[in-house]
Structure formats: C-alpha cells, structure tokens
Design goal:
Helix 1 packs across helix 7. Strands 2-1-3-4-5 form a five-stranded parallel sheet, sandwiched between helices. Strand 1, helix 1 and strand 2 form a beta-alpha-beta unit. The longest helix is centred in the C-terminal third of the chain and has 26 residues. It is about 40% helix and about 15% strand. It is globular.
C-alpha cells in the first residue's frame, strides 16, 4: 500500500514539507509506503474547460499534471498539503488539482472511489481551516473518504524549525498518518474477506433551469 503526499508549497523543503515529512515517517512505521510529490514553483496554467482530456486521455497542457495523472493508480491514499495564502490554498495547488481531478474524471485514468484522502495546511497564523475545507472538497466530490486527525490538520510556523516547535500540530500529523494507515489496512482486510464495495450507480446530472 502506498500514499501520495502532494506538496503544494512554492518552497520544496519549507513548512508544508516539514508536516508532510512527519506524516511520511509515521506511515513508514505503520508499514505503509509513501511518496512526497512536489508540484514545483513554476506557474501552473488553469483549466481551459476545453474537454480535450476526455478525447486524448490527458490534459492538453503538458506539465506535471499529466506526469501525476499517469501514476494515480499507483496510490491507495492521498494527502494534499498547502501553505495558507490569503486564507486559501496556494496559487499553484488549486489549478493543479482542478486539472488533475477533472482530467482524471474525463479520461478515466484511475478509479478514486473509496480511496482515502486528507488535507493539511501550514500557516504562520490564520486561514488554515478555510484552506483545509477547500482542499477536502476534491475528495468529497469523488466518493473518497476523508481521514481526520484529532484536531484540524494544521501546523503553525514561519520556518521549518518553528513548525517543528508546534508540538500539538506535529503530533496531529502523526495521528492523521496512523488513522490513514488504519483505514488502508481495514480496506485491505475487507477486500480479502470478500466484503463488496457499495453499489455503484450511474451519475445523474441535473440543473435548475426548467
């Protein structure tokens, strides 16, 4: 089993990485592999809403989104990490996730249904809960269970050293990792025991124009 940790910070080894690294170390203790995927600090173009991904099987914009799109099936769980920018997720992770989730849904690269996900936020001071709520919505629209810790999944600090001094925040990263590992092990045990997945219905789309 393997969990993907997406680092959505412009700083590759900053505060967000510090929190994700604590999660990765705990997952390793629990016998779960992980990988931290850095989306980089180069500008990421927004979705063009062109629909080409449904025809060509990938996003028409060829960057790190397509790199990860081809690998989604490698992972059994997902954790999104972002610093807080203006009380919201970073300017790079949002278009990255828009295109990743949309292209995957249109191209059918990976079935994410019932794969667990979670989001963490790193901040100097405020805006963390809004950021976590924003990131968790990518999971909720995909029928992906959201894994929690014992508190909101946030760390505080302006540098990696300060982040490590947030003892409660770092503890919660470890608790989150253990909860993620427990869910993955339960899901594996259920699969081995022959417990069927919930019935899958065809999606019905409606709007409010009559």
């Amino acid at each position: 089993m393997k969990v993907l940790l997406i680092n959505g910070s412009p700083k590759e080894k900053g505060c967000t990485y510090t929190a994700l690294d604590e999660i990765a170390k705990t997952l390793d203790i629990e016998g779960i592999q992980s990988e931290i995927f850095y989306i980089g600090c180069e500008p990421i173009a927004p979705c063009k809403a062109c629909g080409a991904c449904g025809k060509i099987g990938k996003c028409i914009i060829n960057d790190k989104v397509n790199e990860l799109l081809e690998r989604l099936n490698e992972f059994d769980g997902f954790i999104l990490g972002s610093p807080v920018h203006y009380a919201a997720a970073s300017g790079n992770i949002v278009p990255f996730l828009h295109r990743l989730f949309y292209a995957n849904a249109r191209a059918g690269k990976a079935d994410l249904r019932l794969k667990p996900g979670s989001a963490i936020a790193s901040a100097r001071r405020a805006g963390t809960t809004a950021t976590i709520d924003q990131l968790n919505k990518y999971f909720q629209i995909q029928q992906m269970p959201v894994i929690s810790g014992r508190y909101w999944n946030m760390v505080h600090g302006n540098t990696p050293d300060e982040t490590r001094q947030d003892i409660e925040g770092m503890q919660n990263m470890r608790i989150l990792a253990r909860n993620m590992a427990y869910y993955l092990k339960m899901k594996e045990a259920a699969d081995k025991a022959g417990v069927p997945l919930p019935e899958k219905e065809d999606i019905v789309f409606t709007n409010f124009i009559r």
